[in-house]
Amino acid sequence: EVQLVESGGGLVQPGGSLRLSCAASGFTFSSYWMSWVRQAPGKGLEWVANIKQDGSEKYYVDSVKGRFTISRDNAKNSLYLQMDSLRAEDTAVYYCARDGRPAANTHFQHWGQGTLVTVSS
Amino acid sequence: QSALTQPRSVSGSPGQSVTISCTGTSSDVGGYIYVSWYQQYPGKAPKLMIYDVSKRPSGVPDRFSGSKSGNTASLTISGLQAEDEADYYCCSYAGSSTLVFGGGTKLTVL
What we know:
The complex is a heterodimer of chains A (121) and B (110). Chain A contains no helices and 11 strands. By secondary structure, chain A is mostly beta strands. Chain A is globular, with a radius of gyration of 13 Å. In chain A, a hairpin with a 6-residue loop joins strand 5 and strand 6. In chain A, strands 2, 4, 5, 6, 9, 10 and 11 form a 7-stranded mixed β-sheet that branches. Chain B is an all-beta fold. In chain B, strands 1, 3, 4, 7, 8 and 9 form a 6-stranded mixed β-sheet that branches. In chain B, 35% of the residues are buried. At the A-B interface, strand 5 of A face strand 3, strand 7 and strand 8 of B.
């Protein structure tokens, strides 16, 4: 069974940093693109970033470019999101998500339970 | 990277059919076959209902169907049931390995 478990969320002040982690199990992690998707309170879903199987390609939504860094450790079956220069508008539940097909980057079949990031003074 | 456009809300009575639209551009919905739909209950993670415009993952009832015409994709739910009341989001591949979601539609079963 595919499992994605996020951790690392919490309360942080504006301008601060936070590192989210996603522990993956139940599949060959190194064969899949992985993504972060967020949802602000009471708002819709927003794709944030994704990373290719070997980490050689990374893409971001414009609003986080230069502030967030996605990475992965295939030996540890883990996905990360380093979030710097955080703003109030980054407050959201952050989901780790996986495509339904190996080596594809077209939809999100599997989701974690999410971790809440609150940016506030 | 503009969000796809969905109606904020739709409603229908049990047994009826409802259709949720998702409008984008030729750079996303209109340019690729990679449109997906997600169902989300309050406080829960989204669930994939449709991918590649019209394919259903295993376990999703065939009451859910998807289609696309030009820059607009649609999700149709037939034989509406009370359990279908939820938020629905479309998503499209938008080129350069990026994806974009719609703003979401709240489905109310009357």
